[in-house]
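Chain A, query sequence.
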Amino acid sequence: MQEQYRPWGIKNEVEDLWGVEITEGLFSNTIISFNEIKFADDDSNDLSIDYTVIKAPEGMDKKDIEGLEFENIVGKVVEDVLKKAIEHYENEYRKTDTSESDT
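Chain A, predicted structure.
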């Protein structure tokens, strides 16, 4: 899914925001900032995603972006980011764990 979004962020004295810019489809050029991502308290594996639309595509108002279709895209992006982070962590952990066991 990486080809459908790219990382986005601002860090300065006033702001420290991170998120993504959607690069394909109806919502291409939309920038969202993630405020909070958390798992449900039960065993459902549901995610709660709080985000802010920073920039809407040309010709669209930020209110036009609200809806289930956009929320599904945001969910897929977050799932992809989490999956890649877990894979990266596991690969790094394996490298560290392997190098320690060889000595």
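The chain has one domain: 2-101. The longest strand covers residues 31-39.
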